[in-house]
Amino acid sequence: MAVGDFKSEKGVKDLDAFLAERSYVEGFVPSQADVCVFEALAKAPSAATPHALRWYNHIKSYQGAEKTKLPGKKEVPAALLKGGAAAAPAAKPAAKPAAKPAADDDDDVDLFGSDEEEDAEAAKIREERLAAYAAKKSTKPTLIAKSSIVMDVKPWDDETDMKEMETKVRSITMDGLVWGASKLVPVGYGINKLQIMCIVEDDKVSVDALSEEIQAFEDFVQSVDIAAFNKI
User: Fold this and answer.
1) What's the domain of life for this entry (predicted)?
2) For the CA atoms of the chain, what is the radius of gyration?
3) 43: which of 54, 72, 130, 200 is 20 to 30 A away, CA to CA?
4) DSSP-assigned letter for residue 74
């Protein structure tokens, strides 16, 4: 059977007979061979060729990139080229029911699965993949925004106990606050300021609230300034 025959009424009937016991023109899944034969047809088969019509509508459902991703080579299968309808099993009389295969037949395969069954299977696979992606995403650790802050804590005068002042400052505890290194920096006239670093979680610690907490030690602290502020 030549490819051109698919455009004739006889060619469509031959294809219908070929598909009487097959879901696809080659193998058990749609392939480029189906696309090749589909494009060779002049028009959709009529209701007079139900097997060809069923196959045609199924292949037609594949569009664009989905169609190009089908496996196999885009050529008419040898079974159609060499034998055509003659290669298909002979049709049985309409009045006589088809013989039921033996229970232990290794070839007992349903080649006529409905489009609804295939769509349900595809939907199930898609849902499983979406569930797996959601589970993977939920286990991904959340990025915590943090900042590194250097604060200048100024005393009242040169008689302020700077060691005690630092102890007071470090006594402040907040969820998301970690104190770091510190040093005394001269500001003049024998007065030093306490320069102390801390790491804070932005969502948990307010810099203004922290400054107010430090200034609450009014017997030691004159003022608090932010010397450096960097996002981590």
Assistant:
1) Eukaryota
2) 40
3) 72
4) S
Interval 158-207: pLDDT, tens: 999 999 999 999 999 999 999 999 999 999 888 999 999 999 999 999 99
Is the pTM higher than 0.85?
A: no
Per-residue model confidence (pLDDT) at position 229: 93
Burial (CB count <10 Å: 0-12, 13-18, 19+), residue 12 = buried
**What CA–CA distance (Å, rounded) separates 110 from 164?**
86
Contact residues for 185 (Cβ-Cβ < 8 A; gap 6+)? 152, 192, 193, 194, 195
**Pairwise CA distance, residues 52 & 163, whole Å:** 93
Distant-in-sequence, close-in-space partners of 177: CB < 8 Å, separation ≥ 6: 198, 199, 200, 201, 204, 205, 210
Q: Burial letters for 209-230: b for 16+ Cβ neighbours within 10 Å, e otherwise? A: ebbebbeebeebbeebeeeeee
Neighbours of 177 (CB within 10 A): 16
Q: 13: which DSSP letter? A: H
Residue 213 exposure: Cα atoms within 13 Å on the Cβ side: 15
> At the top level of CATH, which class does the domain 146-231 belong to?
alpha beta
What digits encode the pLDDT tens for the residues 60-105? 888 888 888 889 888 888 777 754 433 334 344 445 555 555 555 5
Q: H/E element holding 16?
A: helix 9-18
Q: Domain residue spans in the chain? A: 9-82, 146-231
